[in-house]
Amino acid sequence: MWDFSTDPEFQAKLDWIATFVREECEPLDLLFPGHGDPYDVHNAQSRAIIAPLQEQVKAQGLWACHLGPELGGPGYGQMKLALMNEILGRSYWAPTVFGTAAPDTGNAEILAMFGTEEQKARYLQPLMDGTIVSTFSMTEPQAGADPKEFVCRAYRDGDEWVIDGQKWFSSNARYASFLIVMAVTDPDAPPHSRMSMLIVPTETAGVKFIRNVGLMEEPLGEGIHGYMHYDKVRVPLDAMLGGPGEGFKVAQARLGGGRVHHAMRTVGKCQRMIDMMLERAVSRRAQGRLLADHQFVQGDIADSIIELEQFRLLVMKTAWVIDTQPHGAARTLIAMCKVQMAEVYHKIARRAVHLHGSLGVTNEMPLAYYLMGAESLALADGPTEVHKVQVAKAFLKNAKPHEGLFPSEHIPTRLAAAKQKYAGVLDQ
Ligand SMILES: Cc1cc2nc3c(=O)[nH]c(=O)nc-3n(C[C@H](O)[C@H](O)[C@H](O)COP(=O)(O)OP(=O)(O)OC[C@H]3O[C@@H](n4cnc5c(N)ncnc54)[C@H](O)[C@@H]3O)c2cc1C
């Protein structure tokens, strides 16, 4: 059965979420608009506002919905999460209010999957409670897309690991209580088992900020993406998350979920931009007509709606496969979502900016921010090209070469075969 319906009971929850996000979360986007604001757990004002909101979310049973019941989430699965996340994606603050903000979601997942009981009690529980935030520290200044180029080392010294090296774009490190650092622990091992994950409390001696890298208009050195120097940072042996050499495996476990959740939220951002385009088109006039009456404008609106619908179906199918098929079955679909998310987001943002004219590029509308967000999403969690290669390889590995000069779909060859097959009838 192909079924695109939402069960009425869950639809009631989605309706509650939509009203709550519009009335309670979107005002926070305006009051606390900094990239890092949702992660700054020490801002007394914003925390005073969100604490009761988070309580309301918990009372509705909608807190930390990416996690199963054994970890305090309702365990709705990815289909329901997709429907939720496309509403939450409309507001920058909403994921924090609902306990589903990246990168903490991914970090919570790997702590749940690979953490010891002690690690879970110390790091996972406060993350789940929303009282702390965390950082995933993997990319290096000389290498991002290819972890095989990483050089940040961790070597054993007695009963400690010593981490020595630099990391780039460690998002939210300035607010984080701990960092999950990927380091080379066995340089002579094959590339995929050279690295391990280590949990490092941020206050550990030797954790140094070279600077906080900012995006776009942010003042130099005041962004939220930490350029880190782990200057002979010492952590105990039990700080390892997963086994020695399992860094790659742990990273992969978190990145798949993170990518598809970004894709779900992107659906919401795109829908919001389309809403803005529609409103503008029926509000503004040019050449004696509404913008809505100009065919170029209609074309941009139609293309945006069609592309979003296609992308949304891809995201929903991916969520369905994750929910219903064995672990790993959705790998290629997730790569497709990763590629298409940035493409569709970029195209719709560009059209929405353009339709709003000069106002569209100002800081008085959220559109220019969305346009840059699309470019960031084309890089974060791996650039588009890497995921395209993954999709192509997944299909090419099953492709069979065809014997002979012409392809199997060559019409004259197939026609000759068809004539031969029905020669008995055709000859009469
Ligand atoms: C907003 C944002 C948040 C981020 N947060 C984090 C974080 O919290 N933690 C973290 O560790 N990292 C984070 N990153 C870093 C992110 O993972 C890297 O930017 C990404 O992996 C790409 O690495 P790079 O920037 O070094 O680009 P490079 O590796 O230098 O790649 C640059 C370009 O080279 C080309 N290219 C690279 N590889 C290939 C290939 N195989 N085939 C074809 N072309 C290729 C592509 O055009 C690519 O865009 C974040 C990035 C952004 C933008």
UniProtKB/TrEMBL annotation:
Residue ranges annotated for the Acyl-CoA dehydrogenase/oxidase N-terminal domain, each copy included: 17-130
Ranges for domain Acyl-CoA dehydrogenase/oxidase C-terminal: 245-394
GO MF term list: acyl-CoA dehydrogenase activity; flavin adenine dinucleotide binding
This protein's GO CC annotations: cytoplasm
The keyword Ribosomal protein belongs to this UniProt entry's keyword annotation: no
Keyword Transferase: no
GO biological process, alphabetically ordered: fatty acid beta-oxidation using acyl-CoA dehydrogenase
Required cofactor(s): FAD
Residues of the Acyl-CoA oxidase/dehydrogenase middle domain: 136-211
Gene3D superfamilies for this protein: Acyl-CoA dehydrogenase/oxidase, N-terminal domain (1.10.540.10), Butyryl-CoA Dehydrogenase, subunit A, domain 2 (2.40.110.10), Butyryl-CoA Dehydrogenase, subunit A, domain 3 (1.20.140.10)
Subunit comment: Homodimer.
Family (UniProt): Belongs to the acyl-CoA dehydrogenase family.
Protein name: Acyl-CoA dehydrogenase
Organism lineage string: Bacteria, Pseudomonadati, Pseudomonadota, Alphaproteobacteria, Sphingomonadales
